[in-house]
Amino acid sequence: MSNRINNLQYLIWVLGGLLAFLGLANVMPGYASIPRIGPFALEWFRPLFFFLCVAIAIVFGWQRNLSSGRALPVWRILLDLIALALVAYCCVRYYQVGMQMIKSIVFFDVADALVAVAAVAVATLLCWRLWGAPIAIIGLLAFAYLSTGDYWPGILKTSGGNLVDGLAENLWFGADNGLMGSIFGIILSTVLPFIILGSVLEGCGAGDSMIRISFALMHRFRGGPAYSAIIASGMFGTVSGSAVANVVGTGVVTIPMIRKRGFSGNFAGALEATASAGGQILPPIMGAAALVMADYVGVSYLTIIIAVLIPALAYYASLFLAVYFEARKLGVEANDQEIPEPVTRQDWINLSLIVAPLAIIVTLLIQGASPAGASITAIFALLPLSLINPQIMRQPYRLLAALAEGGITVARLSIAIAIVGIIVASMSSTGIPTKFAVLLSSASEYSLLAALLITAIGCIVLGMGMPTLPAYIAIIVVMGPTLQAFGLEMITAHMFVFFFGVASVITPPVAIAAFAAASISQGSPMATALVSTRIAAMLFLIPFAFVYNPLMLTVPEAGGVYSLGAYLWMLAQLALALYLAGSALARFDQHRLGRLSSLFRFALAIVLLSPFQLPSMAAAALGVGVLVLHRINQVKLQEALS
User: Which tens digits make up the pLDDT trace of 54-72?
Assistant: First the structure.
């Protein structure tokens, strides 16, 4: 059994490494005397890449089955080999049709439609295995609607058309829609190098050093390990783009230390989950979402990271406050003996392995370099730089393994993105986003708040169990036009949808990041998810705040009217709202808060974030008064006890 597992592991590493090298070669810019290799012709490169993704997904499933001690039945192997052969034929046919399209107009026949359906069937099966039922079922529903839209009643009825042409072009052979459409192209051209960079960062050993340093810096505070978890998870989350992978990678170290300090298992797991999820809204990389969003919105990368900066920092400040109030409530004290390992000079040197690539990426992107060029330059800089870590010097093959793991991650994500391509094809060819906007406008009676609430719920439901990036893309296709119909700027609508797509990974009932953290903290999965929702409450409130107050997004593209005084007042309101909401949710400040006092503080925080000037000014005055009075009462209480 172990030999079979090892053989499959080697095979998947070879396939992952091949995919990574092909993907990087496709987008690598030219350097001085080194000529540019790509970009490759999409007629052959996309089908080859898709075939490799399917092969990796199949072998990954075999390896996972055997590693968990389950048998791999013969029928499963035969089914997968048939699926692989089907995809190989579909990819060859894609190439043949693509070459014909270059020379002349192509008319599709029933065989071409069956090729498209076969490719959809295989992709859906693999997506179900890799990512669970939700995204696969949504893809099947989109496929069903695309196939039967002409028979639906009322506003949902689509204009009649040639079903054969519609299925063939929209699902498989079109360069803009379908399994290998424009979204798949974004993965190849933009997201792939960042995922591989994140994998190399993890493999070069910088993560362990960063965790040790953050513990050393924070261990003298009451919530030291918890603060360290927030910092480490945020830093890695911005590169990895996967909340679950981040939880598993950093949580195995941080969660036990948080529990050891005196926090409950549910709180420890929830904090790791919320900090890991937040990495996807944290500049500079945002798990590559910033780059995808910039492509969609039509603005620069710098505009996106400036826009998200204040909301992201506010969210992480709310996590620090959640730890601060929880530590005071539990009576947690600092303990100098809880550093897991002493920080060495090598740890500080290893920190450059994180700082240098991020600095290179930000600098090059600001200077106008392409996202792919910036990330590949960072990878090329990181590979030799990682040799400053003695562990890598002794075991340089770890870098090759990291590249291969990056390729495997890209392959798994690409399967989910392929299903999102079905959804996008169905939406774009049937006009459902426009129809949904009309329905939502009627249902909400032209109330922006009602539309935002419906959109937020839809984002969380559609995002259940999905990786954040494909969830964001799937959601914005449906919800984006709806919000823009209410007068929101495009960047604001995209930010709103993206924030709630991120929130879905910590929101019950399918809080995948919280469940992953609970498996480490040994807490209750559902209780951990509920605590995650409580301590990440600002993740749900901040999007509403920047919709109604675009100043929070800083950039003029958000539609705000800017002045220094108004901007400073917005920051003051936000800081006060964070403190009031944090203490209210913990039901503790200098001493325990009653239920009514907590509700009053939380209500003041919401009013502070509202767009109404006079009520927010009154809430600010009341909030300051409440805090001053609370402090006076605490002093009197201490004097009475002494």
Answer: 999 999 988 888 877 777 8
Amino acid in position 296: Y
**CB of 28 closer than 8 Å to CB of 192:** no
- Quick: pLDDT tens for 439-451: 665 665 567 888 8
Backbone angles phi, psi at 581, to 5 degrees: -65, -40
Cβ–Cβ under 8 Å, residues 176 and 182: yes
Residue 341 phi, psi dihedral angles, 5° rounding: -145, 145
Residue 174's alpha-carbon distances to 83, 123, 178, 508, in angstroms, are 22, 17, 7, 37
Entry pTM: 0.79
Alpha-carbon gap, residue 264 to 330, rounded angstroms: 10
Beta bridge partners of 588: 592
Structure tokens of 207?
């993560």
| Burial letters 144-173, b for 16+ CB under 10 A, else e | ebbbebeeeeeeeebeeeeebbbbbbbbbb
d(CA 339, CA 323): 18
**Burial call 567-586: b when 16+ CB within 10 Å, e when fewer:** eebbeebbebbbbbbbbbbb
Placement of tokens 């990330």 in the chain: 375
Neighbours of 603 (CB within 10 A): 15
